Amino acid sequence: MRDTLADMRQRIGYGRGIAAPQIGVLKRLILIDTPEANLVLVNPRFERWSREEDERYESCFSFPGIWGLVQRPLGVTVVAYTLAGEEQRIEASGSLSRIIQHEMDHLDGFVWLDRNPDLHSLCTTQEYEKRYVSRESH
Ligand SMILES: CSCC[C@H](NC=O)C(=O)O
């Protein structure tokens, strides 16, 4: 998963999280690697979703090149195990929360397109960069 994330960064320029099913491993395992967080989540489950939601652009390197606005809870609390088998509780908001939710979807066979994105917002990477380069997105 680390290798694939690193490869994606080289090939498409981003990659902050990956779920095991994305590389054909059917385990409930997530790796998140951002400047703010470096997490391995084993058997994660949601403990809380905030009522407040926001809408942000997402894409996925399982089918790169498409972007769209997806509405999700702003904050989540997740309980998971570390690789060493210790329980960890992560309270996340903002972009970390969104990455966690995006990756948790992969564990259940969902991708962001299943989350009812705003159809008018769907665009290619080129269009996205042209239109929204100034917006914080990923
Ligand atoms: C908004 S979450 C985006 C997650 C994506 N990872 C997998 O496809 C990535 O950009 O790393």
Automatic annotation (TrEMBL):
GO terms for molecular function: peptide deformylase activity. SUPFAM superfamilies: Peptide deformylase. InterPro entries: Peptide_deformylase, Peptide_deformylase_sf. Belongs to the polypeptide deformylase family. This is Peptide deformylase. It comes from Herpetosiphon geysericola.
